[in-house]
Amino acid sequence: MEHQTEEKLRIQLAECYHLINYFGWTEMIFNHISVRLPGEPRRYLVNTFGLNYDEVTPENLLMVDADGTVITNGPTKPNPAGFALHGAIHAARDDVHCIIHTHTNAVCAVAMKEEGFSHDNFYGAQLFERVGYHTFEGITLYDDERPRMLESLGNKNVLVLRNHGLAVGGIDIPRAFFLLWVAQRAAEIQCHTGMIPGQNVTLSDEIRRRCAQDAESVIANSSAAQKMFDAAVRKVRKERGPLWVGDTPSP
Questions:
Q1: What share of the chain is helix, strand, coil (3-state, %, to 5)?
Q2: What is the pLDDT at residue 74?
Q3: Number of domains within the chain
Q4: Where is the Class II aldolase/adducin N-terminal domain (predicted)?
Q5: Is the pTM of this model over 0.85?
Q6: What is the pLDDT of residues 189-231, one digit of tens each?
Q7: 123 versus 246: which is more confidently predicted?
Q8: Pick from 178, 130, 138: which is nearest to 161 by CA?
Q9: Are the CB atoms for 177 and 225 separated by under 8 Å?
């Protein structure tokens, strides 16, 4: 991953919040996107609790540690429900620098199904053997759930929180956003497929595995995720103007 300064990470994370808002993947003031700070393996940036995603700016992002202690001075606080999930993963996975948690309708519907994600559509096939599943234990507030969530995630970068929602992780913000987009599209297509009568065309595990490996390799070894992220940010700025007061394109 290209080294980024805290300033650049703050800008890119704020942009990511605005993208999630633009695509309609928000949950009012709830849910979280976090990014680990460079050279600080146990510290990360996250949103201030109470703000809408389109109110997030680089300046009002909070710095917290993996135990939930707020490092940033001031009266604002993050949502405590994010510590167990984000703090646990940031502390345990050196390869996961950005984590995005969502509760979209399609994702929540998939999280309700025993089989979880189908791997028979174009996007679902890209997630084959890349998804962990965690049994619902209530609102993620308690430290004792952390080791069980980490065990459920394993070495994967997608975690379905049963009866709840989804968390994805990536080595940087664009790759995490790209993976979220793939998971969201997979969930949407799966939901729509379920509305249509008739037998689905299934894929073999061999095809699913090759598709997933190719998708993972392309994103890991190319600038595709960054190009997609930048294009999405340009689209939002073109349609809605500056994302916050003083907003300028990322350096």
A1: 45, 15, 40
A2: 59
A3: 1
A4: 11-191
A5: yes
A6: 999 999 999 999 999 999 999 999 999 999 988 899 999 999 9
A7: 123
A8: 138
A9: yes
Collapsing DSSP to helix, strand or coil, 107 comes out as: helix
Whether 114 is in a domain gets the answer yes
Helix (H, G, I), strand (E, B) or coil at 156: coil
pLDDT-wise least confident of 68-77, 109-118, 148-157: 68-77
247 inside domain: no
| Rounded distance between C-alpha atoms, residue 148 and residue 34, angstroms | 20
pLDDT at 142 > cutoff 90: no
Per-residue model confidence (pLDDT) at position 80: 66
Q: Distances in Å between the alpha carbon of 226 and those of 8, 27, 250?
A: 14, 25, 12
Residues 79, 154 contacting (CB under 8 angstroms) = no
Number of H helices, E strands in the chain: 9, 7
Query: Is residue 206 within 8 Å of residue 133, measured between CB atoms?
Result: no
- Express each pLDDT in 74-109 by its tens digit: 566 666 666 678 888 998 999 999 999 999 999 999
Contact 37, 2 (CB under 8 A): no
Place of tokens 């201030």: 48
CA distances from 27 to 21, 23, 30, 44 (A): 9, 12, 5, 21
Structural domain containing residue 51: 6-240
Asked if 98 and 178 touch (Cβ cutoff 8 Å), the reply is: no
Integer angstrom CA distances of residue 80 from 32, 35, 70, 141: 10, 16, 11, 7
Q: What CATH number does residue 170 fall under?
A: 3.40.225.10
Closest by CA position to 165, among listed 85, 81, 103: 103
